[in-house]
Amino acid sequence: MTTETLSPTRERSRTSNRLRAMMTQENLITFVVAIIVAGAVIVPLAVLFVSSFKVLDPLGWDTAWGFGNYVEMFTDRIIPKAFINTLIISSGSTVLATFLGVSLAWINARTNCPGRDYLEPYNLIPFFLSPFVGAIAWHNLGEPQTGLLNNLARDVLGIEGAIMNIDNIWGVIWVTGIFFAPLVYLFVVGSLRRMDPSLEDSARTTGAGLVRTTMTVTLPLVMPGILSGAIIVFVTSAGEFGVPFKLSAPYGWETLTTQIFSKAVGDDANHYLGAAMSMALGIITVFLIWVQQRYIAPRSFTTVTGKGFRPNVLDLGPWKWVAFGYNLTFIAVAVVLPIVCLIIVSLHPVWTGKIVWADLTTINYVKTLFWWRPEAISAATNGIGNSLILAFGGASIAMVMALVISYMIHRTKGFGVRMLDFLSVVPIGFPGIVLAMGVLVTYIQTPIYATLWILMLAYITRFFPYGQRNISSIMLAISEELDQSSRMAGASWFTTLWRITIPLLKPGLFAGWILLFIIFLRELSISIILFTTGTETLSVGVYYLTNFENEPLTAALSMAQTVLLLIAIYAFRRFAGREALTA
Amino acid sequence: MAVDTSGAYLQVDNLVKYFGDDKAVDGISFGIPKGAFLTLLGPSGCGKTTTLMSIAGLHTIDGGRIRVGETIFTSPKEGLFLPPEKRDIGMVFQSYAIWPHMTVAQNVAYPLEIRNWDQSDIDDRVAEVLELVGLTDWADSLATNLSGGQQQRASLARAIVSKPSLLLFDEPLSNLDLKLREQMRVELKRIQNEVGITSIYVTHDQSEALVMSDEIIVMSKGKIEQRGGPVEIYSKPVNEYVSNFIGIANLMKGKVVEVSEPGIGKFEVTQDGQTVQLPCRLTAGIAAGEDAVLSVRPENVHAVPEGGGGVLTGECIHAIFLGSYVDCRVKWGDFEWKVISHPRNHPRTGEKVHLRFDAEHTLAVQP
Ligand SMILES: Nc1ncnc2c1ncn2[C@@H]1O[C@H](COP(=O)(O)OP(=O)(O)OP(=O)(O)O)[C@@H](O)[C@H]1O
Ligand SMILES: [Mg+2]
Q1: Per residue in A34-56, is it b (16+ CB within 10 Å) or e — as a string?
Q2: In angstroms, rounded to a whole number, what is the distance separating the alpha carbons of residues B188 and B190?
Q3: Backbone angles phi, psi at A41, to 5 degrees
Q4: Helical H runs in A111-168?
Q5: How far, in Å, CA of A580 to CA of A577, rounded?
Q6: Whose Cα sits closest to atom 31 in ligand 1?
């Protein structure tokens, strides 16, 4: 054997090797996909960044470069308050959602609470429904004059005045906290379920009681999951538009999102100031998501042993009925009560807070759904069609993209893979309304503005990472050798993808598709920035009705959306597993 | 260097592969004749899989050239790279890689479908191959219902079904338990003999390599340490690394003091003030006066009575009865000799022992 020194030729041969390697089928596709994704993700954010330094003159005619928008954010009459309100709402919702999510997950995973397996799917329902619709329902439940609960309290219990007022910052925290509790639940329930029971048992043998064991052993072990969930809730609450728009903004508590919205459309629209505010919101959320992805998420796997043993659950004794009641109460408050309220309100011609049996009517459904009828309100009836197109088309395109990207990331070592990996985390860090602002300022002068395409583009850009994660988790679990052996059998890259990879990924593809379908069907904060007459979505229709029409009409369309979502959730439960729910 | 002048069927020249800045394969060259069974043997991380993957085309290489028959598979310098599916190779993976969404027969038929065979020909050929590997009864079961050994057979069937020009095995038996592994070794070799396809087999299990191969290449850190037949590799390791890796050997540092005729000389070792000279064979390239390593297999060291030709004296510190032989350790200074003795006549713990060495099997190798 001879050894020739390769060092002089090494660099050159590696470079030419790189060039030649770039010409293969998969590398070309990676490159093209990376460029498309980079364009979709980076361009709007870059334009947003640049726009935030354009200052509109007082007459609104001309712009100059400068930091004026950022200065205005501190000197404005409303924005600094909106900032603080956003922080209060996000913190409050995070505390509430974390408490609810962790306690419910613990009850379901670690105790002998009756009917656990039966309760779980219902605990998760709020995760799939629209928080905006939840806010509308709770407005009709807890408004001092017309709220159903307040009226019941007056009529049945004979209480003077109102037992609650939902229309304030606390109401926002209440609704947001309830709706995002399942997020925390999903982050911790898996670890709790898979936790090695001997860890708890050994604490018990040292004499620690149930409460003490839970506090000192169980919860610390799942702390990374809890923190991850809490951060995601904080970020999602900060980017939530519908709930503060309905419950607090009209009563003097503006938030960053409602302010961004008013700068995007409204009479005093100022896209550049809106861009600066979006940047501010985006920087906070990106930072938090970065902390979560970089430092917290990786740790959640190391604390838990993954072996498939059946942990024995804690016997709560008679307290199990307390746990059961607590869980039922959550489902009642988060799911049943709002839906029942919407149904009741939607059947009244006008809503005064009292059920009037004689007046019940279906006219609200006719006006909001039956587009062929003369009395139909087009802003509402357009919504279903548009949302279904966006949900079907968007979910399908996004899943194809997610498939290609996952494949690239996990199966090829090609050029641009690192960038793809990075790009598919970035959108998670930006609230929909921020990305939508970027898309707005980027494409407002182009022909796709004022079409459904701009909505679809923004939807896909913001949400394809969720689909991608669904596929990636499965792809990580199936051996690369399954693909490689197909190549060795003589199949090309594409044939392998079609005959081996995709069939193996089917469950993940399907779960991801329905998840995106659901998200798109209820999407509000992107749509509200980018819609125009004719491209209203379901949630925009609800927005229109609650803003310009009355509560019964709003409730009717909200119910229509909720029913569609419930059907999709059923399909999701039926065909995908709960494993698919990795947020 | 051998720039492809050999009549070898598969020729690898100066293969180099980097991962980042790490050289996983560092310029190795070898050729094999048609129909041969070559094993790449080495410890974990030495670059065996990387070499195999380079031949398969599952990753690109950074330097060198790979040729099979008349076809150049890859040669970065010439800008040549044949995609894996065009290389006509059968490959058996460590994880078997049986597709779980297909039956055994569908798995085996796949390569033929890709080659657009007629359905009736496919059926005949699949039946024939399943018969060969003994899976006829399992043709229609889902691959996931098979045991490890059966999946291995299915994987082998899929690899050979299209009569490829080359068969590659990446530690195919390492997921099986010991009994099954020993049985499959023989089986695999039988099938390879029967189909006569040139094969490269990767393993870190030396006994597997010794049993199955026509030729063995011992690798370490991306380089070839030695190449030869199983007997040669075992009885004439060229350096300390190989003799340590293959089988068990007594390895002791020392010096060659005399070369009496080519390949034969004397080796001097010092321990505890005792200096002993042992007649030995010399690996090519070792000259008198050089530092070297003495390598003697335990079966070539004998405990003998006083006056029985022993050259050094130590103390037996343990003797363990292992059925057909007794495994003894003889302490000589700081060094412990591993000695194999006959159960009927072996030293006892604590006894003084004289050791005799078979000059024929006492080797001085490169350190
Ligand atoms: N895809 C990869 N990326 C980076 N480094 C790699 C990759 N594959 C292999 N290596 C490195 O290259 C070296 C050789 O790896 P290789 O897989 O060829 O070893 P091996 O001899 O097959 O070992 P084993 O017996 O463990 O399979 C190792 O140091 C390994 O860490
Ligand atoms: Mg390997």
Answers
A1: beebbebbeebbebbeebbbbbb
A2: 5
A3: -85, -45
A4: 116-128, 131-142, 148-156
A5: 6
A6: B45
Adjacent-strand bridge partners of A314:
A111
CATH (residue range A45-355):
1.10.3720.10
How far apart (Å, rounded) are the C-alpha atoms in residues A361 and A206?
65
Domain chopping of chain A, boundaries: 45-355, 362-583
Q: Do A488 and B63 touch (CB under 8 A)?
A: no
Q: Classify each residue of B276-297 as buried b or exposed e, where b means 16 or more C-beta atoms within 10 Å of its C-beta.
A: bebbbbbbeebeeeeebbbbbb
Q: Which chain B residue has its CA at the smallest distance from A15's CA?
A: B62
pLDDT tens-digit readout, A302-337: 444 444 445 567 777 788 899 999 999 999 999 999
Q: How far apart are CA A565 and CA A497, in angstroms?
A: 32
CA–CA distance from B156 to each of B126, B163, B172 (Å)?
12, 12, 9
Distance CA B278, CA B268 (A): 6
Q: CA of B144 to nearest chain A CA: how many angstroms apart?
A: 13
Would you call A24 and B99 a contact, using CB atoms and an 8 Å cutoff? no
Choose, out of B68, B99, B101, the residue to mutate when testing the contact with A (most A CBs < 10 Å): B99
Give the tens place of pLDDT for each residue, B328-365.
Answer: 899 888 888 898 888 887 888 888 888 888 888 888 88
Using DSSP's 3-state secondary structure scheme, residue A236 falls into helix
Q: Assess whether pLDDT exceeds 70 at residue A128.
A: yes
pLDDT at A311: 56
Cα distance between residue B363 and residue A190, in whole Å:
60
Predicted TM-score (pTM) of this structure: 0.77
What's the gap in Å between the CA of B1 and the closest CA on chain A?
5
Q: β-strands B63-68, B71-75: how paired?
A: antiparallel
Gyration radius of chain B over CA positions: 25
DSSP A283-340: HHHHHHHHHIIIIIGGGGGTSS------PPPB--TTHHHHHHHHHHHHHIIIIIHHHH
- Are the beta carbons of A419 and A34 closer than 8 angstroms? yes
pLDDT of A303 reads: 41
Q: What is the pLDDT of residues A46-92, one digit of tens each?
A: 888 888 888 887 776 777 787 878 888 788 888 888 889 999 999 99
Q: Where are the domains of chain B?
A: 10-240, 250-365
Best of B39, B40, B48 to mutate for ligand 1, by most ligand atoms within 8 A of CB?
B48
Per-10-residue mean pLDDT, chain B, length 367: 63 91 91 92 91 89 90 88 87 86 90 91 93 90 84 90 92 84 87 90 90 92 92 88 87 85 84 82 82 88 82 86 87 87 83 86 85
User: Who among A20, A24, A503 is closest to B76 (CB)?
Assistant: A20
Structural contact between residues A90 and A234, judged by C-beta atoms closer than 8 angstroms:
yes
Q: Which of B2, B158, B168 has the CB atom closest to A489's CB atom?
A: B158
What residues 259-318 of chain B have any CB closer than 8 A to a CB of chain A?
none
Tokens of residue B96, six digits: 């078997």
Given a cut of 60, whether residue A301 has pLDDT beyond it is no
Q: What residues form DSSP beta bridges with B356?
A: B302
> Chain B, 193-232: which have a CB under 8 Å from a chain A CB?
223-224, 227
Q: Which CATH class is domain A362-583?
A: mainly alpha
Side-chain half-sphere CA neighbours of A315 within 13 A: 1
Which CATH architecture does the domain made up of B10-240 adopt? Answer: 3-Layer(aba) Sandwich (3.40)
**pLDDT number for residue B219:** 93
Displacement of CA B362 from its chain's centroid (Å)? 22
User: What pLDDT digit, counting tens, does each position of B174-226 carry?
Assistant: 888 888 888 888 888 888 888 889 999 999 888 889 888 999 999 999 999 99
Question: Does residue B46 have its Cβ closer than 6 Å to ligand 1?
Answer: yes
DSSP string of B294-351, one letter each residue: EEE-GGGEEEE-TTSS--EEEEEEEEEE-SSSEEEEEEETTEEEEEEEBTTB-PPTT-
